Amino acid sequence: MIPISDNIRCRNKPIINYWLIGINIAVFFWELQLEFSGGLGYFVNSWGVIPAQISGAITNALFYNNAAWIIVIWRTFSLLVAIFLHGSFSQILGNLLFLWVFGKTVENILGHGRYLGLYLAAGAIASCVQVLAEPSLTVPLIGGNGAIASVLGAYIIKFPKAKIDTILPLIILYIPIQLPAFFYLFWWFVQQLFYGIGSLNIPPVGVNQSGGVFWGQVVAILIGAGFMRLKR
User: Fold this and answer.
1) 221: left (phi over 0), alpha (psi -120 to 50) or beta
2) Angle between helices 51-63 and 69-81 (to 10 degrees)
C-alpha cells in the first residue's frame, strides 16, 4: 500500500513539514557518503540511541560518580539526533511518504510551533520507551519512526474517515484505490517489517529492529492522539 495524498484541504503552507522532510533527506545523503568512506558505523554508534550506554550512564551517575551526568546529558542528546537518522532506503522512503501525506494536515491544525514540538518530543519519548523496555540492548536504535507515528496518531484521531488516495502494487500492475485513514494505523505496523530492505552497511546488524521499538511507537501514537485532543 502506497499512500499518495488525502482529501483534506490545507489553508496554510506546511513549512515545518517541508523542512523536516528536507533535513531527513539531507542527513540520509550524508549517511550514504559516510558509508562509502567507511565512517558510517562510527557515526551511527556515536549518535544512535544505545539503551545499554544510557541506562549504564544513569546508574553510574546516581550511585557512583556525579561526573557521569556529563555522559548522561551527551547520550540524552542522541534521543533527538537519532530521529533524523535512518538505516535503510525502505525505512526513510516509508517514513517520509507517511510524513508527506499526513504531516501537512496535522501541521495545518496544530500550527507550525506545536507541530514541531510534537514531532521532536514524541520522537524522543519513543526512544526513551525503547531504553526502558530493553535497557541492556547494545544495538544503536535510529529512525524517525516514533516521531512520525505521533503524526499518524494525531491525524487519525482528528480525521479517522478521511479518504487516502492509495496505489496498490500488484506485481506489474498499480491499482489506484481510496482507503480510510484509520486503515493506515494498522498498515503502519505492517510496514515496519519491510524496513530492513535496502539496509545500509551499519555494524552491528539489526539497527532499529528491537522489540522496544514497537512499544515506543505505540506510545508515540497515543501522544499524537492526546496532543490533538487537547487542541480541540
Assistant:
1) alpha
2) 150
Residue ranges per structural domain of the chain: 2-231
Distance CA 183, CA 8 (A): 16
C-alpha cell at 159: 480525521
Residue 83's Cβ-side half-sphere holds a number of Cα atoms within 13 Å equal to: 28
Chain segment 34-44, per-residue pLDDT in tens: 988 888 888 88
Distance of alpha carbon 225 from alpha carbon 181, whole angstroms: 14
Domain 2-231 has CATH 1.10.3110.10: no
CA dist 164 and 83 (Å) reads 26
- One-letter amino acid at 186 equals F
| pTM, two decimal places | 0.87
Match 524496513 to its residue by C-alpha cell.
195
Q: What is the CA radius of gyration of the chain?
A: 18
pLDDT tens digit string along 207-218? 444 556 778 888
